[in-house]
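Study this protein:
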Amino acid sequence: MKFEIITLFPEMFSAIKNEGIVARAIKKSIISISEWQLRDFSSNKYKNIDDKPYGGGGGMVMQVKPIRDCIVKIKEQTPETKVIYLSPQGQALNQSLVEKLSSFDSLTLLCGRYEGVDERIIENDIDYEVSIGDYVISGGELAAMVLIDSVSRRLPNVLGNEDSLKDSFTDNLLDHPHYTRPETIDGQSVPSVLLSGNQAKIDAWRHEQSNKKTKQKRPDLLIK
């Protein structure tokens, strides 16, 4: 999968390109990440890509032309790419949406700044508007990294096994409890079923615990 990032701060993406699961996926050539500096598409000598909003008010708004020119350039190379705008007004990034996005071959992620982008971009150039939560952050770069990580781990061979199929939110359930050595510490022991060697009983226990955790911590997931 190709991730094309439209951003004013391309250096931020070194955080995921050089470390962790995403970095390993890049080394395996399962994914690629390309940053597009939006200022390169500015038509003025100061490389400005924003201007004051019509109607007054504080802040600046990212202009149509540099964004649209950048999207056009990306689509010349990858016509099938889906364009996503990271925005607090977008659809919530949940596991269902992650799985849908992982089915595409290319995603172009537009990282907003300031007061956001001109509405005409959202109306005419965006396929998906996506939010990582009901709060405001300084720009779309961190949200884009969250999306890249969550989508990448759903791709074949990124994790090297089927662990992602058992993650939290699979089947609208939270993950079951996990334990490791030592068997007993500070008077607390690992549940005996996990030491039984009976995989059927272990699987049943894990499913029961997932349901129990979900009811306690996220009952909203069970009524969807």
Summary: The CA atoms of residues 135 and 148 lie 19 Å apart.
